User: Which sequence fits this backbone?
């Protein structure tokens, strides 16, 4: 009789440190849904094991001998695309490289343990990221079999080529939408995202008008990485994009990104919205959590809130979107067809609290329209 046990997620670990390889193997080995099928000390060894072991997900360090991880990632995406979770030291310089890795096709980025976090604390988080990568719609098994072959040329000259369309996160850049015009000073835009969200934000935020109402964003993200993401988005948008600071006033034409490891909430003080950063326990095993931001927005802005929930694994944001909908606010979710992982939007849709479901390229327009139309009708 055939076994009814679900197939485990097969993971290959690529890191030049034997200690890190063992630590990650031990971390993932505790999860019954994951099987570590091998490890490699550099991209050349990884190449042979990818072709021989056919893993479902790769964890990849960026600083390695013989060939750096970013170059290898670009080669991999060109010739044998498969889900990759970058596990790297996210210093300031490392965070820039990690952001480049997301743009090159990595599904997610996770910080290596440092003096503030043990391998044990990393365990559940790493398993979550691996499962998110395995669920990525950008890497259907059939597509990998067709795209991959029995060869993987390790030629750095191909690393500058663009990644195949099947593994791109974001749609091509579109023109910025026209000025928002006169809008109620109480309007507030809140956006939540997780796996695939950094690239999704690169599609949505640059399209919003330069004079948009205050925007607050929660992206599930590692510490050190949020500031780099904010700086990159700032270069693409017509408004200021910054990492949120406690007590920061949110003005029209500004956007704040929740810092890694801190919840972001918004409160109303007089005629202004103010950012509050919290170190309260994780929600849905994550901090920052979308639900914290959305619920605070429902209290602070009520019916003047416009919320958008983008790609991500799990259900974070659904309860907060319920609060916004109950307060008369407007709610938008990314459609399954463009989600890297159709988890968070689906949870909100199944809860019955989403007003509009739109593909990623149309999210910005849906936000602008909702702001212009005002509170939802009963």
Assistant:
């Amino acid at each position: 009789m055939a076994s009814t046990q679900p197939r485990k997620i097969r993971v290959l670990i690529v890191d030049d440190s034997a200690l890190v390889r063992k630590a990650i193997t031990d971390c993932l080995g505790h999860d019954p849904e994951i099987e570590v099928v091998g490890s490699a000390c550099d991209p050349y060894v990884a190449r042979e094991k990818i072709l021989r072991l056919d893993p479902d997900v790769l964890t990849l360090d960026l600083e390695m001998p013989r060939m750096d991880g970013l170059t290898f990632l670009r080669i991999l995406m060109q010739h044998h695309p498969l889900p990759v979770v970058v596990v790297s030291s996210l210093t300031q310089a490392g965070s820039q490289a990690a952001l480049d890795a997301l743009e090159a096709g990595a599904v997610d980025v996770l910080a290596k343990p440092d003096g503030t976090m043990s391998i044990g604390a990393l365990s559940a988080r790493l398993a979550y990221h691996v499962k998110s990568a395995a669920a990525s719609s950008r890497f259907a098994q059939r597509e990998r079999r067709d795209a991959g072959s029995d060869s993987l040329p390790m030629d750095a000259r191909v690393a500058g080529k663009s990644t195949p369309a099947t593994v791109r996160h974001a749609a091509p850049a579109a023109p910025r939408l026209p000025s928002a015009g006169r809008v109620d000073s109480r309007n507030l835009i809140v956006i939540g995202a997780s796996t695939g969200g950094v690239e999704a934000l690169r599609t949505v935020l640059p399209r919003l008008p330069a004079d948009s109402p205050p925007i607050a964003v929660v992206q599930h993200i590692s510490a050190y990485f949020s500031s780099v993401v904010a700086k990159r988005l700032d270069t693409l948008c017509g408004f200021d994009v910054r990492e949120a600071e406690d007590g920061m006033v949110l003005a029209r034409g500004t956007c704040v990104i929740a810092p890694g490891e801190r919840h972001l909430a918004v409160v109303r003080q007089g005629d202004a919205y103010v950012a509050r950063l919290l170190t309260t326990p994780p929600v849905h095993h994550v901090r920052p959590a979308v639900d914290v931001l959305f619920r605070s927005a429902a209290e602070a802005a009520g019916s003047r809130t416009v919320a958008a929930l983008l790609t991500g694994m799990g259900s974070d944001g659904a309860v907060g979107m319920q609060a916004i909908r109950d307060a008369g606010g407007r709610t938008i979710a990314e459609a399954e067809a463009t989600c890297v992982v159709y988890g968070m939007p689906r949870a909100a849709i199944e809860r019955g609290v989403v007003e509009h479901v739109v593909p990623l390229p149309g999210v910005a327009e849906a936000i602008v329209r909702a702001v212009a139309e005002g509170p939802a009708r009963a």
The radius of gyration is 21 Å. The chain has two domains: 9-167, 188-373.
